[in-house]
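thought: fold this chain, then report.
action: predict
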Amino acid sequence: MLFHSTKQAARALGSAWYWPNFSLSELSCRCAGRFCAGAYWHSPSFLDGLQSLRDRIGAPLRLSSAHRCPQWNAWVGGAPLSQHKSMAVDILITAHDRHELLHHARAIGFTGFGLAKSFLHLDQRIEPAMWYYKGSRELWQTS
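observation:
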């Protein structure tokens, strides 16, 4: 469900926020008002998976990107059919073992995996997919 702003989402969701390690602001569009008022795509199943990943890892997950409004997605060079236009996250991996993070994300049920040098993209697309961002293949193929 799309909310056009974090304020609208906060009013609608109220006390129904069950994901203690994540906030609306970090999951909303980060265009800083250039194109939207902090649009947010609410997906309880996605958030359940993200919280489960956080619980399994036992450490904070820093998100560099989550939902993006269509204009922000284009501005940052996102794919035209990017899952970020609904719900996806890019998790910074500098504080994590990349292979462990990927292993747990797969076990939890995420189906879209973008393997980059500094982040792991996760989404819940219908058809499973995995890809490497430029220059990252060797990092993900070594232990």
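thought: worth noting. The first strand starts at residue 2 and ends at 3.
final: tokens above.
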